[in-house]
Structure formats: structure tokens, C-alpha cells
TrEMBL record:
Database matches in Pfam families: Peripla_BP_4
Keyword terms, alphabetized: Signal
Compartments, as annotated in UniProt: Cell envelope
Molecular function (Gene Ontology), one example: carbohydrate binding
Family classification: Belongs to the bacterial solute-binding protein 2 family.
Identification of the protein by name: D-allose transporter subunit
Length: 376
């Protein structure tokens, strides 16, 4: 969907599984029904549970199955399952309870829909008490309150990502001769860990000259996402930027800005490379993308959970060399900042190459094509 000015380059090598994954609904395995293992019904399973259905997860699904192959799970009598969720906390709670009743599940990677939801955390802890290995991916729990509900986190450093996006937005506004003004951020759930961190980071990146006017939640409802943008433009005629925090927010913003003919009024930036956001940028209706690496997140999740189940401390140490130290339980993946091919004030030299991989839209589109992906 600048992301933490620290998300190293993006080196995904998506396999042909992506094509299959992109054509299946979230929660369905290639050639199977929701919840069925990819390689058969026997043996032990590692499960990935998403938060909200969205094409963003297509790349993660592909990475999860690529991880199954890369880390030789079938040879170890193991398989993976990719589970959807209905976009509600209760949906995740119900799924986690189901997992607890299935003795073949030995590892769970979850993207919690709400960082502070005590009921979700309780079910995560129940799984741990039953001997199931639990990690978070993409979204984390509130680390101050619930860190013990999972062993490790894999994903973007969302605060730094937000700072990077804020810095990019500031540069775009400067090119429009706008040195101050108000902006609005749009997200599925303001209580999500990644959403909150990204929005806080954007605020820091834009600085005190710009007002964080509102943070509008849509509950994962894409119709509501568009309605929020309409309300923002109607109620705030001084807005200078609209910022999408979750993958589908970008297309929602671009669609409404186009229908309202407000493109000259606002800068439009978003996280993730949803298919609609890519097309909006191609048409000149979107100024910047901050793209994560869900493929690698999910692939590394398989490696980690397998190592945890097998008590392979060497692999765990390799992935988390600072384990036991502050934030030593966090593995950050890479980000890309993507700009239009022409007429963009964003340039590669603006960003720390050790934290951000800068590219133009044609390069991103070619990478997606090479890996049989439509979004990332």
C-alpha cells in the first residue's frame, strides 16, 4: 500500500505460484478449499491468517507457498495453509479458536486487525499455551501491552515507512508551492498497528507546517472508503493532500478525486501497489506509492515457524541476531518508493539507498510482470 525510511530494497523472486494465487480467493489454496493444506491432509501445518480480504495479500499468499517449497516442508512432513478473514476482529477470534481445535496446526502467522484487541491476544496466547508457535506478520500487536502474545514480528517498520511517505508528500507539495496546509489520512482501522504507526510517521515526515486534520476509518469497506474521501473533500476545502494508508485506500482516493475533478487541489499518495493505484498513477492521478514486500514477509514466516517448531536455533539466530535485546524480536522487510515516470519532484538521491529503493512506475510494472503479479 519512505515507509520508515528504513525498509531496504525489494528483492522478491515470485514464483509461478503467484499466478495461481492471484486467481484464487483469499483463504483458498491452489486446487483446494478454504483451510485445506496445500500438499495433502496428513502431517503438520503452518497457517497464515490475514486481517482483511484485499489483493495486497496475493503476493503474501504466493510467498507463503514459495516458502513451503524453499524450506522443504513436504520433506519434513509439513504443509502450509493460507486463511482469509472477513475484515472483523471477531472473524480472527473465531479462526484462532478453530486453529486451537486442530491438532495438526503447529505454527500460526497472523496479521492482527487491531493491535489492542485483548480478545485476539487472548486467543493467540491460548494457542501458545497449547504448544502452537505464534508470530505476527505485517501488523503487530501493541508491543507495550501484548508483546508476549507472539514470539516474533516480520514486516515493515511502519513508523519509518510513514516518515518516508511524509517526506515524499512534503516534496510533492513543495513542488506545488504549498509549504503549509491540512491533510487527511484514510485507513481501514485506526486501531491497527501498521495503520497507526504509518499515520504517526506521515505526521512526523510532513512536519509541523502541515496539519493532520483527520484520520478516517472505513472498516475495510471499499464503498465506505470512497464515501470517506467524498466527505473529506466536501467538508474541508483547504485540504492539500489525501493519503491512503491501506492498499485499497489509494484507488478509492484516486477515483473520488477524479470524479470531483479535484486533482489540481490535492496531492495523492498511498501505501502499497494495488492494481487500481498503479493504473491511477499511469493516468496521472497519483503522485507516489510506498510499496512493501508482502511476498518476502510471508516466505520468511514459513522459514521462521518451521525453525521454531523444529527448535532450529541456528536459523532463528540468523534471522534474529539481536534476540533478547530491545526490539530484537523484530525482522524488518524492504520498501520501495515509486514515482511517475515523468514530471515528478521525487528523485532517487532524496532517499537513503540503504533504507529505500526508489524506482519509477515503468520499472515497478515490469517487475510485477516478470513475477506474474498485478499488485504488491
Amino acid at each position: 500500500m519512505l515507509c520508515k525510511m528504513l525498509r531496504p530494497g525489494f528483492a522478491l523472486v515470485a514464483a509461478s505460484l503467484l499466478l495461481i494465487a492471484g486467481c484464487t480467493e483469499a483463504g483458498k489454496q491452489p486446487g483446494g478449499d478454504p483451510g485445506t493444506p496445500s500438499t495433502g491432509s496428513s502431517g503438520k501445518r503452518i497457517v497464515f491468517l490475514i486481517n482483511t480480504p484485499d489483493p495486497f495479500w496475493d503476493a503474501a499468499r504466493a510467498g507463503f507457498f514459495a516458502g513451503e517449497k524453499a524450506w522443504k516442508l513436504p520433506e519434513a512432513g509439513m504443509s502450509v495453509t493460507f486463511e482469509s478473514n472477513d475484515g472483523t476482529p471477531q472473524g480472527q477470534i473465531d479462526k484462532l479458536r478453530q486453529f486451537a481445535s486442530q491438532s495438526d496446526i503447529v505454527g500460526v502467522a497472523i496479521s492482527p486487525i487491531q493491535a489492542d484487541n485483548a480478545a485476539i491476544v487472548e486467543e493467540m496466547k491460548n494457542l501458545q499455551a497449547a504448544g502452537v508457535k505464534v508470530i505476527t506478520v505485517d501488523n503487530d500487536v501493541n508491543r507495550d501491552r501484548f508483546r508476549d502474545a507472539r514470539a516474533f514480528y516480520i514486516g515493515t517498520n511502519n513508523l519509518d515507512a510513514g516518515k518516508a511517505m511524509g517526506a515524499a508528500t512534503k516534496a510533492i507539495l513543495a513542488a506545488r508551492n504549498q509549504e503549509k496546509g491540512a491533510y487527511i489520512q484514510f485507513v481501514g482501522d485506526t486501531g491497527s498497528d501498521n495503520g497507526r504507526a504509518r499515520m504517526d510517521g506521515v505526521k512526523q515526515g510532513l512536519g509541523t507546517s502541515f496539519e493532520d486534520r483527520d484520520r478516517m476509518a472505513d472498516g475495510g469497506d471499499k464503498g465506505k472508503a470512497q464515501e470517506n474521501v467524498r466527505n473529506a473533500l466536501t467538508n474541508h476545502n483547504d485540504i492539500v493532500a489525501l493519503i491512503g494508508i491501506w492498499a485499497y485506500n489509494g484507488p478509492a482516493i484516486a477515483t473520488v478525486v477524479s470524479e470531483r475533478q479535484a486533482r489540481e487541489q490535492v496531492a495523492v499518495v498511498t501505501f502499497d501497489a494495488a492494481e487500481g493505484s498503479i493504473e491511477a498513477m499511469r493516468q496521472g492521478n497519483l503522485d507516489a506509492l510506498c510499496v512493501q514486500d508482502p511476498y518476502d514477509m510471508a516466505k520468511q514466516a514459513v522459514r521462521l515457524l518451521k525453525a521454531m517448531y523444529e527448535k532450529d536455533e541456528a536459523v532463528i539466530k540468523e534471522m534474529y541476531p539481536n534476540q533478547g535485546q530491545p526490539d530484537g524480536d523484530i525482522l524488518t522487510t524492504k520498501i520501495r518508493i515509486v514515482a511517475p515516470e515523468t514530471n515528478s519532484p521525487l528523485k532517487e538521491e532524496m532517499f537513503d539507498k540503504n533504507a529505500v529503493e526508489f524506482m519509477t512506475l515503468p520499472t515497478l510494472r515490469q517487475w510485477l510482470k516478470d513475477n506474474n503479479l498485478k499488485s504488491s
